[in-house]
Amino acid sequence: MTEHRHSGAVRAPSVAPTSLRLGLSSGALYPDVPSEDAPAVAAARGFADVEFMLQTAGEYAPAFARRLARACRASSCRVHAVHVRQGLHPLADPYRRRAAEALALFDRAIALAATLEARVVVWHGPERAAVAAPGGWDRFLALAAERAAACYAAGVTLGIENVSWCALPGVREVAAFAARAPDLAPAGALGFVFDPFQAAEAGANPFMLLAAMGDRVVDVHLSDLRESDRAARHLPPGEGNLPWPALLRAVAAAYAGPLMLEGIVAGDPGRLDRARERLDPLLAVLAVDSVDPCAATPPPGVQEGIRLFNAREFYACHEAIEAEWHAERRPIRRLYQGILQIGVGFHHALGGNGRGALPLLADGIAKTAAFAPRCLGIETARLAADSQLCLDRLQALGPDGLAAFDPATIPTIHLVATPYAAPASHGLG
């Protein structure tokens, strides 16, 4: 190990709930740090959970498994997952010897995971071309069932990751696989590995993809990308454009366990510290188990949506709040939807589309009024009442008179200094 990798004081552990915490994938350190040194790097930077991304066939050897186990004991690290190297496992290859050797090497990965007391073996599944070939989907299902059985026999779970260039790139494929999963393997034998970066790479909605995984999420990878620069990929979280506050809330509703930092640090482990500085406060907020969600503060996307609403940028308001609506699973998501519907309703009204404006305003007002008088520090009763006055005026003008509607009458969303707990009848607990 080189000295610069582990210099400095040991960082404090990641500040996060015990059920959701940051961990480190050895893949984040590739190619500068060999796999066996990853536990020391993790411990030095405050991570207690690691995932080993195997890089060579030699790293599958039993002797290397024992070496990794010693490194983990020395660093007091837990191994959550072992990630097989995709190129070494062409399990669907038509050349039988290649497929058989790939299968045998996969068995070594399972044995390695058992030696390390890991919970998950991560696999991408066959590449998209193999799955798209005649009979490819059925072969994939058969392979998944067989590999899940092998993992289950060793006391670990097979986790199949949504990867843009492999078997489960998007929502449709994940949903189809999830529908078959109960027939393929018993509970605990087969699950999903959620990677929002890979979802974005595939052009999939990460919130919908996570929802399609249901209650079978067994591992989560965190890396980022910049939409303006497609070469800027596999970045540490926060260095790109993914909506991390909303994503972490969505993950918290579906998964309990370590979140593996996988964005490549390119020889600068300080980027891990900066990722923690961005994510730990978000995880700390999730750790607060509020009896009444209305007593909390608005999440970042809702705060931005309110700012845009008050700036009369109604379509952008919709875009900002929609991510929070996708992420939230509690009934308070109806308030988010109500606000964005009111905004989109006014967007249509100002564009002369009364047919689109009226039902959206009516539905949004009803949803918002259900959280009166205040919620998340928002004066919900006031917003609903003021919006209703506008709706009444639009209805009176009729579809041919919308030009006479005065935009100055559109309400502003008002915030109180501190959030107000909604009455218990709202059923938000």
UniProtKB/TrEMBL annotation:
<dbReference type="InterPro" id="IPR023203">
    <property type="entry name" value="TTHA0068_sf"/>
</dbReference>
<dbReference type="InterPro" id="IPR005500">
    <property type="entry name" value="DUF309"/>
</dbReference>
<feature type="domain" description="Xylose isomerase-like TIM barrel">
    <location>
        <begin position="40"/>
        <end position="270"/>
    </location>
</feature>
<dbReference type="Pfam" id="PF03745">
    <property type="entry name" value="DUF309"/>
</dbReference>
<dbReference type="InterPro" id="IPR013022">
    <property type="entry name" value="Xyl_isomerase-like_TIM-brl"/>
</dbReference>
<protein>
    <recommendedName>
        <fullName>Xylose isomerase-like TIM barrel domain-containing protein</fullName>
    </recommendedName>
</protein>
<dbReference type="InterPro" id="IPR050312">
    <property type="entry name" value="IolE/XylAMocC-like"/>
</dbReference>
<dbReference type="InterPro" id="IPR036237">
    <property type="entry name" value="Xyl_isomerase-like_sf"/>
</dbReference>
<dbReference type="Pfam" id="PF01261">
    <property type="entry name" value="AP_endonuc_2"/>
</dbReference>
